[in-house]
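Hi,

Apologies if this is the wrong queue. I'm a grad student, and the batch job for Transcriptional regulator from Streptomyces purpureus produced an output file that my downstream script rejects. I'm not sure whether the problem is my script or the file. Here is the sequence I used:
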Amino acid sequence: MAAKKSERALVQEWRDVLALHARTMCELDRELHRHGLGASDFEVLDVLAEAAPADGGTSYRVQELADRVHLSQSALSRLVGRLEKSGLVVRGMCGEDRRGVRVALTDAGRARHAEVQPLQRAVLTRMLEG
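Support response: The file is valid. Your script probably expects a header line. Output copied below for reference.
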């Protein structure tokens, strides 16, 4: 049976995780900024690009998307507004709940995602495998 970590070791491990996350997000922002995106912008595009028609379509409800990208609904709404203004996503009414809003990639959003995905994956590889 593994020995229980000391409280100090547990806290240090948590701080190491936070530091790695912060360094990785900064590096992602730096790389993606050249393409007009931030790390959170890309994450939204990436999740939307993975929306499979076999799973019910090519869009997500805003609440589902917020859960997937770990943003509050209000922060996500602002982010989606910026992406929509840039022509990368489109918002529409939710067919199953008229109060809901769905978000989907546009053709321009798919193209931008395809363009920058290799950069994002290279940063993840460099930061997380090193």
